[in-house]
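Might I ask for a little of your time on a matter of protein folding? What I wish to show you is a protein chain and, alongside it, a tokenised description of its three-dimensional fold. I should value your view on which stretches of the chain appear to form regular backbone elements. You will find the record immediately after this paragraph:
***
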Amino acid sequence: MIGCTQQDEHEFPRVPVTLDRAVDGDTFKVIYEGKSQSVRMLLVDTPETSHPKLGVQPLGIEAKEYTKQVLEQADKIELEFDIGQNRDKYSRLLAYVYVDGVMLQESLLEKGYARVAYIYPPNVRYVDQFEAIQKESQRAAIGIWEYENYVQEDGFHKDEYESETVADSNNDSGANVNSDQQPDRSCTIKGNINSSGEKIYHTQESPQYTATIPEEWFCTEEEAELAGFRAPKK
């Protein structure tokens, strides 16, 4: 993915800027046109760290620290604008951000610190590219994608994250001694009940398969569904 960005390096103009300070996982300040101005990365969204209503969201601090470290260690920071407006309603610069030639949006998506969001044409130059990277992170279940319902269409849901971490803790400490013993080697499907009482089954292709401690084992998906279990949401 990064190779594609580097090949297009001279296709669109980039503006060199100097870092002022990091603000959030997807926002920071630079010296642009002689003064400090905020930059909001196009097409991505990271969990909040200082939102007046949402407060600190899970993995928000990690996303912020990653962005801060990458920017502070950079020899060169550049902004690339899309064909639409280059400022939002808060007067923040809207841009694709390059750190020593590598697009920061791509790095955040690859690490599982960001989701593709705020898709407002015509500023959609790299949306397909970003969504392809996001799918790989979802498949690997890393970062914000580790917890099934944490990321939803309208943003990040702290309550879902916390319910799943509690379920994981309960599974680790109070699982049925016999539940993780396969009754038959051909029965590989794991049935798990989370803290909300949802019955979810995981096949060997599921991202959470290895980490799942089963309450029940099933030989087929049909068998799991007949027992009231559903497949994990994508």
Notes: The CA atoms of residues 70 and 99 lie 7 Å apart. DSSP finds six helices and 13 strands in the chain. The two ends are 22 Å apart (CA to CA). The first helix runs from residue 2 to 7.
